[in-house]
Design a protein that fits this description.
This is Actin-like ATPase domain-containing protein. InterPro entries: ATPase_NBD. This protein is of the alpha+beta class. The protein is built from 15 helices and 29 strands. The chain has 3 domains: 192 residues, ATPase, nucleotide binding domain (Nucleotidyltransferase, domain 5), CATH 3.30.420; 184 residues, Nucleotidyltransferase, domain 5 (2-Layer Sandwich); 163 residues, no CATH class. The protein has a 7-stranded mixed sheet, sandwiched between helices. Strands 1, 2, 3, 4, 8 and 9 form a 6-stranded mixed sheet that branches. Strands 20-21-19-24-25 form a 5-stranded antiparallel sheet, with no helix packed on it. A hairpin with a 4-residue loop joins strand 10 and strand 11. The longest helix has 24 residues. The protein is globular and about 95 Å long.
């Protein structure tokens, strides 16, 4: 176990980590007192919690009435009689809503989107996300007030300045982070200003899981000898796979391969089961009980399954419920173990394939991957663990699960991430940069082919627009201190035109290795629209003491030219963008976190 260091701050602080998962959610926290070694705790008491197995997480479910008011959340949704009450009063159930944030940016397939329950009552995923966060926050406040010595005093001393850490799938980026931050604001947890936004930080589920493993039994070979480790966080909606190594004589870890995110979590086992049971019961009177049977499968059979040679049973009714033609006897549906194993097969194939790909990547260092660490709620499945061991140990890998609750990995790991920042180098997933105008060079083919688009500036300069300046290339290993910048300029007739100097941060997700122009992928079907706007950063430079210059483009009058730099910083799970300029030889910067609400479509 990696020891946490004493907190060096000057005042008490509370850190809350929300793990809002597709199927289950939890909260972990740490009270930071100056000079004290912090500890990581979990919220283990929620309303109606006695209905839920596993003390640290509650179902990610919300019931709304027809007016859109929240009526039941989390464990309350499993209370006895809640289904009847919901039907009688017209409540609408919302679950798996987290996946709609991913679906909205156009990056998930139609096949996946069609399997996600629709959002209720014209509500957005962000509105539901905010309602659930507000509920988790209220439960956390009650828990701390009730369980800590002087709990009321403790909460009152920190409630106005709480730091929030939110974990998310490896595949989420600036757009999804902007949606989550907006939900945090909408939930009333932070004010909607720069200082409020700064109290929210993000960590990928893969990196949070690594931090959990470090604190809870990461193999000593990895901690001491510099061997690599692959973290497989198998959750309800996604499976996040990340690779790390701890260089010899280093206290921190490095990411060694682009983290992966796949829609093959435990809900897709349930989807496969539903399709199979639906076909099996299509001619049975019990077909109308399909939803109930699948829910029973989720709660029992899916969790306990561990042997494909043994028959499996889904108990859903009473001893009077029988249909021998469909293998229903005494209220139990009998399934062949081999059939149940097929429900898990897509997830197993996905993990094995991704691990193989990461092993086969060329590496610049001699470190070898020795272990695969399986965490997450789905990671608690004995069948998944058993099959991964069989498949991956043949490749020379040792598959392990932490001794403590693997379903706490992300929430606890997110707090640990905030406290220790054990990962200091990461791999860029895409090309990041900005569009700019470049000096026209006659005779250069890529310039002459765009001669019809030339811009003539007041200085007389001829510029070719829409050149893509790569500031952070795909696959680049960068540390948290790394920053890249490109020099820009703006020519205007009046200094007031510099009051909203702006640039867009662009992410390129196509297949070109070196995209240079906005229209580079226009002729490639598989790349259309792969330049995505992440955010716009604006600054007011109209106050700069600029010297007026005579125009040289054939027009009369004067113009002003402002020089500035576009800066990108790679920090944790977020990029940061800045405009930099100089005043009286002093460097000035305007900072914007890439979490503004811009749809990349």
């Amino acid at each position: 176990m990696q020891k946490l260091l004493p907190y060096r701050g000057l005042r008490r602080k509370l850190v809350l980590a929300f793990d809002l998962g597709t199927t289950y959610s939890g909260v972990s926290y740490s009270v930071l007192d100056p000079g004290e070694v912090p500890s990581i705790k979990g919220v283990t008491r929620f309303p109606a919690h006695e209905q839920v197995s596993g003390a640290s997480k509650i179902p990610t479910i919300i019931y709304y009435d027809q007016e859109g008011k929240v009526r039941a959340v989390g464990a309350e949704s499993l209370r006895e009689g809640i289904t009847d009450q919901a039907e009688e009063e017209g409540w609408v159930k919302s679950e798996w809503f987290k996946l709609h944030i991913r679906a909205r940016d156009g990056s998930s397939s139609d096949d996946i989107a069609s399997k996600i329950p629709p959002l209720p009552l014209d509500k957005s995923a962000i509105e539901i996300f905010a309602d659930f966060l507000a509920y988790l926050f209220r439960c956390t406040e009650t828990y701390i007030r009730d369980t800590h010595a002087n709990g009321d005093e403790l909460w009152d001393s920190v409630k106005g300045d709480i730091e929030f850490v939110l974990s998310h799938p490896n595949g989420w980026e600036g757009f999804q982070q902007s949606q989550i931050r907006r939900a945090v604001v909408q939930a009333g947890l932070i004010p909607d200003n720069y200082h409020g936004h700064e109290r929210v930080s993000f960590v990928t589920e893969g990196e949070a899981s690594l931090h959990f493993a470090i604190q809870n039994g990461l193999p000593q070979e990895v901690m001491q000898s510099g061997q690599g480790v692959i973290i497989v966080d198998a959750g309800g909606g996604t499976i996040d796979i990340s690779s790390y190594r701890k260089p010899k004589f280093s206290k921190t870890f490095e990411e060694t391969y682009t983290p992966q995110c796949h829609f093959n979590g435990s809900i897709f086992v349930s989807i496969q089961a539903r399709l199979f049971i639906d076909a099996s019961l299509k001619n049975s009177e019990f077909h109308s009980d399909l939803d109930h049977i699948v829910r029973c499968f989720d709660k029992t059979t899916k969790i306990r399954f561990g042997d494909d040679n043994q028959a499996q049973y889904i108990k859903f009714g009473s001893t009077r419920d029988n249909d021998f033609s469909c293998n229903i006897r005494f209220g139990q549906l009998k399934l062949n173990g081999a059939d149940v194993a097929t429900f898990f097969e897509p997830a197993i194939r996905c993990i094995v394939k991704t691990v193989r790909e990461q092993l086969e990547q060329p590496r610049s260092d001699p470190a070898t991957v020795s272990h695969v660490v399986l965490v997450g709620g789905f990671g608690a499945s004995d069948w998944l663990f058993k099959q991964l061991r069989k498949e991956l140990e043949s490749l020379g890998l040792k598959v392990v699960r932490p001794e403590l609750h693997v379903n706490k990995a992300v929430a606890d790991g997110a707090v640990s991430f905030y406290l220790s920042h054990m990962v200091t180098a990461r791999i860029s997933r895409y090309h990041y940069g900005t569009f700019r105008n470049v000096e026209y060079k006659p005779g250069l083919l890529e310039h002459d082919s765009r001669i019809g688009d030339l811009l003539i500036r007041p200085s007389g300069r001829k510029l070719v627009p829409n050149s893509f300046s790569i500031m952070l290339a795909k696959g680049t290993k960068v540390s948290e201190e790394t920053e890249t910048k490109v020099r820009m300029w703006k020519e205007v007739d009046n200094k007031d035109q510099l009051s909203t100097l702006s640039f867009d941060v662009i992410c390129y997700k196509g297949r070109l290795d070196d995209p240079k122009w906005r229209d580079d992928d226009s002729g490639l079907i598989f790349c259309i629209g792969h330049f995505k706007k992440l955010c716009r950063v604006e600054a007011d430079l109209s106050h700069l003491p600029l010297e007026a210059k005579p125009k040289k483009n054939g027009e009369e009058g004067e113009y002003f030219c402002a020089n500035y730099w576009v800066v990108l910083l790679f920090n944790s799970a977020e990029l940061k963008a800045q405009i930099m300029w100089k005043e009286s030889n002093l460097e000035m910067r305007y900072v914007e976190i890439l979490a503004v609400d811009l749809d990349p479509n």
